Fold these 3 entries.
Entry 1:
Amino acid sequence: MQSTADLTPKELARRAESLIRHSSNRYLTTVRIAFRAKQRRFDDFDGLLDDSMIKPVQQAIVELSDEQDQPDLLPG
């Protein structure tokens, strides 16, 4: 996985397009991204995150894209 600090806008757009393209329901994918971003934002308020240079929505897209592309990284 590449560092989120050196993520280009083009790479972020490619990951978002990939998420939407591989989803069966675009609305639910958008809701998942928003929910994950909301969780990240509240975690950041608690001071638990040290990577605050990237916005929560961008981080959510990267995380969900990684989960989609590499399902063997998921526990269980």
Entry 2:
Amino acid sequence: MLTEDGKHLYVSYDEYHNLIEKLAIKIHQDGWEFDTILCLARGGLRPGDILSRIFNKPLAIMSTSSYRAEGGTVQGHLDIARFITTPKGEIAGRVLLVDDLADSGHTLKAVIELLRSQYAPITELRSAVIWTKEVSIFTPDYSVEFLPTNPWIHQPFEGYDDMGPQQLLDKWTV
């Protein structure tokens, strides 16, 4: 649900999963065949996992981080992992890069530049996200929703960001 001022988008679990399914349909209808899904952790883990299951393709993981300040709402220095975790040895062939959104677009742009320059076994690379914000400097190959008001997206699992083990214990202790 988008707030009236367009500054916040609240997404339920059902909506979130429906959007991932719509992303899968877009990719399928394009007809592009790929060998591996590479998701960017953390945001791309959930969409990557679901797409991996739908397309029955191996899931590789690359860790990136840029949102640390003020509860993850302020973008900071971009860190990109030096290694990719993949069940097939080295990532190669046609790769679908998955993240949750193209916010500023800097992360996706930097990762794609890195993959193209340092991973020669990748023969083709395309990108897929759930949301693309208008301010993004990068346009993914596949996206479900374009967000012209650039809202902050409140994803359904963000409640865990402020919940530690003691809060879980308190919640489940009768």
Entry 3:
Amino acid sequence: MSITATVLVLLIAALHVYILVLEMFLWTTPRARASFGTTVELAERTKALAANQGLYNGFLAAGLVWGAVAADPVGFQARVFFLVCVAVAGVYGAVTASRKIVFVQTVPALVALGFVVAAH
């Protein structure tokens, strides 16, 4: 895999670790509330739900890191699978929550996927 593809995969993994931290540990802070457009009251009521979402983002990050370090063919398969998962999750989030998610999550995942496939 090319260095560019590896860096892109790891950057997307880092993004999902950041989202994990926001959702699991910082959900009620002003920073997380601004990022997700929630009020103090809504953030308090949805704390457990957000933590669950954060855990799933952690699984995406773990899969991307695994794909970045695993030897092919497994590494390639993991990279493709988890990048597609990120892209699909981004589309769903854009449709159900905020359109900006497509630019934060889906577009970078598809760009990385293009580099991964091109490097294979």
